Amino acid sequence: MMKYDEIHIEDLEIYARHGVFPEETKLGQRFIVSVILYTNTRKAGTTDELECSIDYGSVSHFITRFMQENTYKLIEAAAENLVEALLFEYPLLAGVTLELKKPWAPIGLPLKYASVKISRFWHRAYLGMGSNMGDKKAYLDGAIEALNKIKGCQVEKVSEYLVTKPYGGVEQDDFLNACAQIKTLLSPEELLDVLHEIEKEAHRERIVRWGPRTLDLDILLYDDVVMETDDLIIPHIEMELRDFVLKPLSEIAPNLRHPVSKKTVTQMLKELQ
Predict the structure, then answer these.
(1) Whole-angstrom Cα distance, residue 98 to residue 28?
(2) Which Pfam family is an annotated match for this chain, by its short name (predicted)?
(3) CA–CA distance from 273 to each of 36, 160, 169, 247, 254 (Å)?
(4) Which H/E stretch holds residue 183?
């Protein structure tokens, strides 16, 4: 993971209403929040301009309002939703580590506090997209629109749509292919579930391997992750052998490197051609 500079806010005290028991949500109690804001402070350090950094005063007030205006049974849920709100609110944030302490946790035993501590970061993923049934362009446009509506996903770049011959030897119509660059808070597994749901909404049927489909969405790359499970392989298997992947991908990320071979997309496309 890339190294970031850190801005710390320690032990911000907030009176809020979170808890499992009715008296907690009715009467409220004290919570203590500490956060580490991961960002790049170089520009702020060289310009001495506040707009080049993250205003920790603004963040403190944002945290206070969020904790007081929302109610959750679990501090895990409060922490998760607060971190996500921070990442959406402050564009210069790359990630957040947050510890939420509950000093008066009602467990009937003497303790200083109970707490939960989480770290969440924005991730960058690259998706392959294809369609060779029905209104192909409409299916790809719909997929982009659906991704942008998913909480925790933002589409940053989309390549031009490319007409390609089908892959895999099955007799079928030409494909319309594209690649997209997205920013996401979802894990690879969560992102895969989202893509399958979008395919399902497009009436995708998995009947014939390499067969025709209304919509095909694949995770090509996810940060520098290398993983293999029963359901998911990253980087996408044989992506370096598929021009319908490399051509659109080179349009939006020519210098992106494969985490295993370390070759750029441009290099892989040149070797394939």
Answers:
(1) 21
(2) HPPK
(3) 47, 19, 20, 10, 15
(4) strand 175-184
Query: What own/partner pairs with CB < 8 Å and gap ≥ 24 does 263-270 have?
Result: 268/240, 269/243
Angstrom distance (rounded) from CA 179 to CA 163: 13
Pick the catalytic residue from 102, 165, 183, 263: 102
pLDDT tens digits in sequence order for the chain, 273 residues long: 578 999 999 999 999 999 898 888 888 899 999 999 999 999 999 999 999 999 999 999 999 999 999 999 999 999 999 999 999 999 999 999 999 999 987 878 888 999 999 999 999 999 999 998 889 999 999 999 999 999 899 999 999 999 987 765 555 678 899 999 999 999 999 999 999 999 988 876 555 455 567 899 999 999 999 999 999 999 999 899 999 999 999 999 999 999 999 999 999 999 998
Catalytic residue status for 102: yes
Show the tokens assigned to 176. 């319309």
CB burial class (10 A; 0-12, 13-18, 19+) of residue 222? buried
Q: Give me the domains of the chain, ranges plus CATH numbers.
A: 5-121 (3.30.1130.10), 123-272 (3.30.70.560)
